[in-house]
Design brief:
This is Flagellar protein FlhE. By secondary structure, the protein is of the alpha+beta class. Helices cover 16% and strands 41% of the residues. It is elongated, with a radius of gyration of 21 Å.
Length: 132
């Protein structure tokens, strides 16, 4: 009887370990075309950045999000990184551990400061989403 109990416990623990290993960590990387930000006060949005296969990420959770974009030297834009209707103010590069859905698209928003009159081209928009 004791041997049967030990084997049963082993199988339960093994099953739990198998379920845990199914949630293997991973990441996806996406880039978007440059955005021309031309009118002060107006918000410009990038194309969506998302997983190439979002259906494979069902049930996964975001662990971290890294982003980067580039503006010409000496130029400034206000920038936000958004998912659905939630946005956060961001610098040219950074990382957050705030939660998001790895299956949903992200996008950048840009705005010229009120005192700026010349257009700015924002380039090299990139996002890396780590999930588990």
């Amino acid at each position: 009887m004791m041997r049967v109990l030990q084997i049963s416990l082993f199988l339960v623990l093994l099953g739990g370990a198998a379920n845990y290993s199914m949630a293997a960590p991973g990441s996806w990387v996406a880039s978007a075309p440059a955005v021309r930000v031309a009118v002060a006060g107006r918000i410009y949005q990038s194309q969506a950045l998302q997983s190439p296969q979002p259906e494979l990420l069902k049930g996964q959770r975001t662990r971290s999000v890294r982003w980067s974009y580039r503006v010409p030297a000496g130029r400034v834009v206000h920038a936000w990184l958004c998912q659905q209707q939630q946005c956060m103010l961001v610098a040219e590069s950074g990382q957050t551990d705030s939660l998001g859905d790895p299956t949903m698209p992200w996008y950048f928003r840009f705005q010229l400061p009120d005192n700026e009159r010349r257009a700015v081209i924002v380039e090299q928009l990139q996002l890396i989403v780590n999930y588990q």
